[in-house]
Write a structure and sequence with these properties.
Elements lengths: L1 H23 L8 E4 L12 E4 L4 E5 L4 E8 L4 E6 L8 H15 L3 E5 L2 E5 L4 E5 L3
Length: 133
Amino acid sequence: MLRRRFACCLAVLVASAAFGPALAGDAFPFGSELILDAAPLRGSKRIPMLQIEENGSASIDLWCARLHGQVTVDDASITIVPVVTPQAPCDPDREVRDATLLATLAQVTAWRRLGEVIELSGPTTLRFRLMTN
């Protein structure tokens, strides 16, 4: 009888350890660096990144510019309000890409987490990967 209870408790413990990370994986990764799922532009190693803190402050690194923003995250919705500040001149192609990415981020309305991938969706879907190094 005691062995059977021990075996049941052990089975529950193992099952909860296996499913615990999957359940916790649905949470938004506040404080983590998220890197855009894109290749760097020719002649550069830079890829846009996003970091959102629990208080809603965000650090946004685009192809050229770096700025801050305010973000509201709920269970499945997200709103990003970038704070645009004057930036040093940059390559015209990168400035256009920055403006496009910034406009896309401002139109994001929903998010979902698929393991190490965070999808931000609106009129266009952006895929970010958690930095794990």
